[in-house]
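Sanity check

After download, print the first record. It should look like this:
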Amino acid sequence: MNRASPMARLLWPSATRRSTSVSRGVRPRPWAPSGAVVVRRWRADPERQRLLDEFAASLGPAEFGELLDGACTLVYMYMSWMRTVCEEHDKDVVEHIVPTLVSTMRMMPRTFRPEVVPMMAGLLIAAGSGLSPNLWRAQYGPWTDAEMNPLEATVALLAEHVNRMSGGDQDFAIRLITDALSRAEGEDEE
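Expected structure tokens:
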């Protein structure tokens, strides 16, 4: 059973592929205490990483800006969906969702350095309040290199949270976006 998030499966299928208990990296060790499990770290496929690096190198300033806009749009769409769900249950999305995500970010210090957590929290709060994360972030100047991985991870955390809120459907967040894209294409054709 593959427990990787849909976003991770989409972006890194080779790093999340698991078929047996040994290939999952979970293997009992004779020298370990009874019931202990040793988990092996996974590395991305070198060929896939090379292709991703080539793609990133081919992006010009305009395409890179569009990629950032797309990531912020995903943040906005996921937070809008969560805001709707929270309002149906008389809860505030900022109060209910943001603290959980920020505490998760703080548990991931390699991805979310302490100085970028407030910026990612601000993006979540802006989107949860109905503001554009792109416009909110623009007031602080251009994006920094230190914010790129946290932005990507924030989108993945949001997708995972949407999946959990939907009742555990591991593809719900992806379907939410693809359905919105399909509706937008249908409106453009009319």
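If your output differs, re-run the checksum step. Summary of this record's structure: Residues 5-42 have pLDDT under 50 and may be disordered.
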